[in-house]
């Protein structure tokens, strides 16, 4: 871990995340995935928006951009279009990606841009006071839903799949080794890749929903997450309250930046 810190992290620790927050685990998994692939740090860009998770880019020793709320993906798209050879990774939260940044998310998926998007899903707006997000579970408590959130939450898999993403995976902070492996696979995938990282927020979500401390919230992840291959063998009774982890979908499609480069070459060749 010391070598990982020295190589991939800026000397800005300790971090600002609350005690028990899972964001540090997710960020470490991103660094481990990069190390596993031995990516060139000078050709790897990490882009984030606004929120608890988006502070991660400031700790990582790469070319990084901490952008406006919900705008990480369009900034990342610009980087990828101008530097197609770069590995471009987006670190974003459940609100940043699916609320104010929702249109950017679905259209980047539709275009199949070669980006890796890691969604830190802690089910809440943790930084701004514990408001419910588009991923807050139905009837869970939040400061803006003190009697329960009546909205139906998005399913990140269904949202990404319906929009056209060609790689979709999910893991939890309890399953950190799996999460590292999935992020590495997402980076290696040619196309729009989404990894949902289920992360505990003991302060803003856990307290309001009486889930106990950080250890209990991680045990909840352990007890409710099931490998997608195992879920296929379970009956409806066994599936109650469970959610799948692993590679949820992997497909192929024409990658946007590659197609766009051909358009540029064609335009230059025509003299227009």
Overview of this structure, please?
There is one protein chain. By secondary structure, this protein is α/β, with parallel strands linked by helices. 40% of the residues lie in helices and 17% in strands. It has an eight-stranded mixed beta sheet with strand order 2-1-3-4-6-5-8-7, sandwiched between helices. Helix 2 packs across helix 7 and helix 5 packs across helix 6 (156-163). The chain is globular and about 65 Å long. The mean pLDDT is 95.
- Biggest sheet, spatial arrangement of strands: 2-1-3-4-6-5-8-7
**Which term fits the overall shape?**
globular
Query: For the residues shown, what is the average pLDDT?
Result: 95
Helix content: 25-40%
Low-confidence stretches: none
According to DSSP, the number of beta strands is 8
Largest sheet: 8 strands, mixed
What brief labels describe this structure?
272 residues; eight-stranded mixed beta sheet; 12 helices; 8 strands
Q: Secondary-structure blueprint of this entry?
A:
Layout: H1 2-8, H2 23-37, E1 44-48, E2 63-66, H3 72-82, E3 87-93, H4 94-98, H5 102-111, E4 116-121, H6 156-163, E5 167-172, H7 176-188, E6 193-198, H8 202-206, H9 214-224, E7 225-227, H10 228-231, H11 236-239, E8 243-250, H12 256-270
Parallel strand pairs: 1-2, 1-3, 3-4, 4-6, 5-6, 7-8
Antiparallel strand pairs: 5-8
Helix pairs in contact: 2-7, 5-6
Would you kindly provide a brief summary of this structure?
With 272 residues, the chain is of the alpha/beta class. It has 12 helices and 8 strands.
